[in-house]
TrEMBL record:
Protein species of origin: Lepeophtheirus salmonis (Salmon louse)
Main subcellular location of this protein, as a coarse class: membrane
Keywords: Glycoprotein, Membrane, Symport, Transmembrane, Transmembrane helix, Transport
Chain segments carrying region Disordered: 1-45
Ranges of biased composition (kind: Polar residues): 1-20
UniProt name for this protein: Amino acid transporter
Lineage: Eukaryota, Metazoa, Ecdysozoa, Arthropoda, Crustacea
InterPro entries in alphabetical order: DAACS (IPR050746), Na-dicarboxylate_symporter (IPR001991), Na-dicarboxylate_symporter_CS (IPR018107), Na:dicarbo_symporter_sf (IPR036458)
Length: 249
């Protein structure tokens, strides 16, 4: 029994020693499947010696910073989604920037009055379109707000709103009439002193007719456009200068 126990214990010791030797050899031998860290330098015994920064050769290695296809696809989708979500803001900012830069550049150029009028014509049509939307927008907002109110519960609020709107409109019209009677704009005596300003250059050309056509397609007042049209006229100043004026007639 003693001999058997001694034999078994010696076999266990041999197995343990063999296992320790295998582990030590595995730790010393490099693993070919394990990637090397680019920031780590190894010595001859394949043990980690010291940690250093990236070398220039490693940074300049071809394909080192190449983006994966799936990462590139996700990045492009994010950029495209951001542009689509902020498309109106981008277009508005681009238009304002181009307008400011173009205006600063054109200030140094000596342009004729006709060139200035043609450059400002798209902006004039845009402003007329905005003015055209003001009155229908106010009326539609009042109608929508009044219709959404409960007549039984909020009837007093709706009535006060309508009365307030009518009262403020009448007061503004009354103030305008009082100022006209006090200031007398377009006084006939002043007109007689300045003269009629008739000159031979007061003739409309084809360009004015085409511009008036665009102004009539986009009137600034929908009610006034129902019975009047925009018309370009030339007014003489002191019989020497001619000014272009656009008015309804």
């Amino acid at each position: 029994m003693d001999d058997n126990n001694l034999g078994a214990s010696s076999m266990k010791m041999n197995n343990n020693a063999t296992t320790e030797l295998q582990k030590e050899s595995e730790m010393k031998s490099p693993n070919p499947h394990q990637p090397k860290h680019p920031f780590v330098e190894e010595n001859g015994r394949n043990n980690i010696k010291e940690q250093q920064g990236p070398t220039m050769e490693w940074l300049l290695e071809p394909g080192r910073f190449k983006m994966k296809p799936e990462v590139r696809e996700v990045t492009l989708k994010k950029i495209t989604s951001w542009f689509m979500d902020n498309l109106l803001l981008i277009i508005t900012f681009s238009g304002v920037s181009m307008g400011v830069i173009g205006g600063l550049l054109l200030r140094t150029v000596d342009l004729s009055p006709d060139s200035i009028m043609l450059l400002s014509y798209p902006g004039e049509l845009f402003m007329r379109l905005l003015k055209l939307m003001i009155l229908p927008l106010i009326i539609a907002s009042l109608i929508t707000g009044s219709a959404s109110l409960n007549a039984k519960i909020n009837g007093i609020v709706a009535l006060r709103t309508i009365v307030y709107f009518i009262t403020t409109s009448l007061i503004s019209a009354l103030i305008g009439l009082i100022l006209v009677l006090i200031i007398h704009p377009g006084n006939s005596e002043t007109k007689n002193l300045l003269g009629d300003g008739t000159t031979k250059e007061q003739k409309l050309d084809i360009m004015d007719n085409f511009l008036d056509l665009g102004r009539n397609l986009l009137p600034d007042n929908i009610f006034k456009a129902s019975f009047q049209t925009s018309h370009t006229s030339y007014i003489g100043v002191n019989g020497t200068e001619v000014q272009r004026k656009v008015a309804y007639r």
